[in-house]
Write a structure and sequence with these properties.
247 residues, alpha/beta, 8-stranded mixed β-sheet, 9 helices
Length: 247
């Protein structure tokens, strides 16, 4: 049986930005996409992933389309939550607008879910968007909070051709030497490590940041926010993080 990593790598090889903006979807307001693997991939291909998820089981994602006047295809901000809700915080919507990013976060993908399923949901988020939207394939960032940040760091390290930027919020793991990591490609990407002076993951986050630097990932930024505990940063700090990746 192929490993989840090998299966996800195959999915990544299929990701080709295509499609057009769906005019009936609300720009500037969150909405939901709900699809099965059968609908996304077709029954034959979906059956390859039945050990991770039933091909007929619905996956739902919370989506936010940026509200701006850009004529360029938007990038994508794939968010992994430690909880069962992938919805964007209201205060973060203007940040997605500014950087012309589509927000997409899987629902029912919290810390109690198996990691391989959470990773599959994140990859399938791109395939779900690919059905209806023209997106910028070189502006795809993965992010997550707490345990979601740890899953995001797995995706960023295993699929550096897909996720060229990452924002780890109060949770991150350095990549394992046991995995087949393409370090030479990975270190070309941009990474932001967000934590707070009152975050219980402060030491772990600073340690992971140092490991990234020592491995050659020089496009890395550590943000230790004064007074912030184990929580989401405010819009200004998220904007600073994305500015490091995209400006």
């Amino acid at each position: 049986m192929k490993s989840a990593q090998a299966l996800l790598l195959l999915l990544c090889s299929w990701f080709l930005p295509a499609g057009v903006f769906a005019l009936d979807q609300p720009v500037g307001q969150p909405f939901e996409i709900r699809l099965t693997l059968n609908q996304i991939l077709g029954e034959a291909e979906a059956s390859r992933y039945k050990n991770i998820l039933s091909p007929s089981k619905s996956i739902s994602w919370s989506v936010y389309l940026p509200d701006n006047e850009s004529t360029e295809p938007p990038g994508v901000f794939v968010y992994i939550s430690p909880r069962n809700q992938g919805r964007i915080e209201t205060s973060w919507r203007p940040v997605m607008d500014r950087f012309n990013l589509i927000w997409i976060g899987a629902n029912n993908s919290g810390n109690r879910m198996p990691v391989d399923r959470r990773m599959l949901y994140a990859i399938m988020a791109l395939k779900a968007l690919d059905r209806d939207y023209l997106i910028s394939g070189n502006r795809i960032t993965v992010s997550g909070f707490s345990g979601g940040g740890r899953v995001a760091s797995r995706l960023a390290s295993q699929f550096p051709e897909v996720f060229t930027g990452a924002v780890y919020i109060c949770g991150v793991d350095f990549w394992s030497d046991q995995l087949d990591i393409r370090v030479d490609r990975l270190v070309q990407n941009h990474f932001v490590f967000v934590t707070g002076t009152r975050d219980f993951n402060l030491v772990d986050t600073k340690s992971a940041y140092q490991h990234y630097l020592e491995a050659g990932a020089q496009h890395s930024k550590l943000m230790v926010i004064p007074g912030m505990a184990h929580e989401h940063p405010d819009a200004a700090n998220l904007s600073e993080a994305l500015g490091f990746i995209y400006d």
